[in-house]
Fold this sequence. Notes:
The protein is of the alpha/beta class and 991 residues long. Helix 6 crosses helix 8, helix 8 (144-169) packs across helix 14 and helix 14 (268-314) crosses helix 22.
Amino acid sequence: MKRNWELDELIEHFTFLPNEMQQIGNKSGETRLGFAVLFKFFQYEARFPFHKFEVPKAVIQYIAKQIEMRPERYTEYDWSGRSITYHRTQIRDFFGFREDTVQDAEDVIDWLCTHELFHGHDFEYLVDMVYRRFREMKIVPPTPDRIERLIKTAIHTYEGQFFQATLEKLPVASLAKLDALVDRIAFLDDEDYDGVEGSDGILSFQELKADPGKPGVESVLREVSKLRTIRNLELPDELFRDIPLKALIKYRQRTATEDLRELRRHPDPIRYTLLSAFFWLRCMEITDNLIELLIQIVHRIGVRAERKVEKEILNDLRKVGNKFGILFNLAQSAVNNPNGIVRDVIFPIVNEQTLRDLVKEFKHTGPAYREKVHTIIRASYGSHYRRMVPEILGILDFRSNNEVHRPVILALELVKKYSNTGQHYLPLLEDVPVDGVIRTVNREIIVEKDEKGQERINRMNYEISVLQALRDKLRCKEIWAVGANRYRNPDDDLPTDLEERREENYKALKQPLDAHDFIESLKQAMKDGLEKLDRGLSKNEKVRITEKGNGWISLSPLEPQTEPVNLSRVKSELLRRWPMTSLLDILKEADLRIGLTEHFKTVAVRETLDRDTLQKRLILALYGFGTNTGLKRVSAGEHGESYKDLLYVRRKFIHKDNLRNAISEVVNAIFRVRMQEIWGDATTSCASDSKKFGAWDQNLMTEWHIRYRGRGVMIYWHVEKHSTCIYSQLKSCSSSEVAAMMEGLLRHCTEMEVEKNYVDSHGQSEVAFAFCHLLGYQLMPRLKAIHSQKLYRPEPGMTDAYPNLQPVLTRPINWELIRQQYDQMMKYATALRLGTAETEAILKRFTRNNLKHPTYQALGELGKAVKTIFLCDYLHSEELRREINSGLNVVENWNSANSFIFYGKGGEIATNRLEDQEMAVLSLHLLQNCLVYINTIMLQNILSDRRWYDMMTPEDLRALTPLVYTHVNPYGTFKLNMSERLPLEGVYLRE
């Protein structure tokens, strides 16, 4: 049961009705309160508490108040006597429940195999489903241990059936080819394997598992070779078509961590299913990687050409200003002296050097400039990159669901047809698609005239244009590839039962079924916001709206807040009580209190290590990854564990899903341990921002960062106001921060209910405002270019309304477009909510490359309306601006602590494997949250002393953060003694 409850929730779920109050009868003392708590707990959860203190204090207090008792009496209730047994029987009978039987367990196992295990094997999810099933059956569920055994039995039964069914689907030819491939490849255990093909051209298993290298022709050819090897297995396209991706990933991880000897020992159904699942998923991943390589290479060719041309002309170019004035003077002088000599008439008005500079500028910015760039692109493409085109077009099948983009598909077929010829022009007999393929500005470069004066298509220039068009359409998913995952058919990103479950989906989004109601509420909110801002502007000394430029918003900076006077004393006391506490001990203490290592389950079928040994090795491995020191250095410490032992634990136990589950456990533990007197009420707001980390660059994730300079990756954090990070994700430098922001809000999997999200300018857009509104979140950005923002009018005909805002008011919102696309917008919002595809994959459809998409246009209009409402509040309320600024300061503080913890290897992510990069990021996230957890307890330990607490001012409590590390030592010899504990006493406010 969750720990934090609002008053309205308590009233809804824990209020006694008259007939329920009769059940309490004449019970008295602690028996009366104990029965009442059991009664309401069972009514809410359909089970009895596992232990006395599972019931939150707020619930006990609310129930005690109703029956006029002191909540402290609950601790006196006998949890093991005859009274509680009788009470449970009485409660069971009242709600019509009965105790479970052996047959009930078998029925639930069958139900799991039939209805739930198909979707995945997440243990926590299955536990929830089992309890829900027992509730539907009106049966009191068995103990947690029996529930766990029941679920494991169901999984074992289901997997046996699944393995056998998969074997029966596989053709005999595919089975033979799988055996032949396994016989040829070797599973290499050397982690320093360099990824070179065997002498006979056969790819090793290590090579088939490897991520692509740095974007380039060699990487493309290597990925094509992998894809061709896997496709030669001829696995049926429909083999796992209806199986959820998450379930297949489990089998893929298991295959990747087993060696050849282990795989061969499996019975046929298991062996062939594991291999098929691995190669089936790798086929999709490699297809995605090939498309990503193509997108990056085409972009790189153009960027390098532009950079080269710009470098050549930089010193030779002097930009000329006031061109209109020069043109006017030239025209006037020419008209007044039509028969004059240029040197006598023109040069006195505009000197010769200025005219020369104008000629140079035109040559470097107009068609001549574009021709220079294209010449370099052609040279680079023709001499090097062109050899990848036949390979890519020969193995990938591109398609489009939109007839508008059909010319690009036809153009690709034409390029493929003539890719191995040396013709200068495409044949006259071919119907060459031009519209929708060739950019208008490049037409003169591609369409040439031959010696006979006929217009011909330059083949190589046409190929370059086709690839550029393909890149643009792939990025917005108007063109997709067969067999891909991220770049699959965009229709597959949407749930298949949207229409059948329309009412349910709208209810989940908390949006009206009728577009009219939705629009009217937004209109009214816009009118209210604009009216409030307009009326208050004359009294608002911090905001000015002027006619400057095309309308200008001036916003005064926030004044500094009062400095906290006692925080330094608290930090000094923290250092005095726990001087130079080992960061490794902090991780260990967090695990001993929370049990975070319990979430690390093996990818194999069973665990052979005892939990104590496994716990110790997991702590050491997580510390090695979270500090970036690595397993080899950690294994050299004083703890008795070898590098080989830690490496085994990493391969079998430490994976992305396990790390995310452990992070959620730590986050929830922080929320539970907080004292309300010190930290205030539970928050519903978080801030999100990214930080650049240096990384090896022989991979697709690492990119050059324009702002921060240097190659690296970005980690995008979601941090709530008391420095607890609820979600993190690895992203490339150029990928969308909007997609990362929404991913964190939707997938954080903690007990926190996020309502507001603070971002900087990079984390917002009109589409982001629209989707956040549809999904029930308030997007609150700190806008850098506030001076250029515009406010939209709610309706036409309001030209004279809001007189104080006239300089920044612009056109009215197109509500009709929103009305027409209302259901489509809800479909995409539902897809984001349900996670039917990656958030970034769905949002790819709504970028500037796809401006004509009607749903994108409607989302833009909706975003403009929501942003106008936000801007009105933002400009009107200094308190809101300070709230946003404070939230973003918290995430900046979180970023600053990263380098203290992630200190190994100079803070650079020293791997090219995407899986290892993600693991390093999540381990850092886990370790830093553990520091926050232990610091929260330490600070509460200090402030639980009434003398310290009374000394704290409101400014001190406002600025208090558990993310401090002056008392922490992450360096030195790695010592781990599982029997030693940190001296942390029980925490409560003492007089």
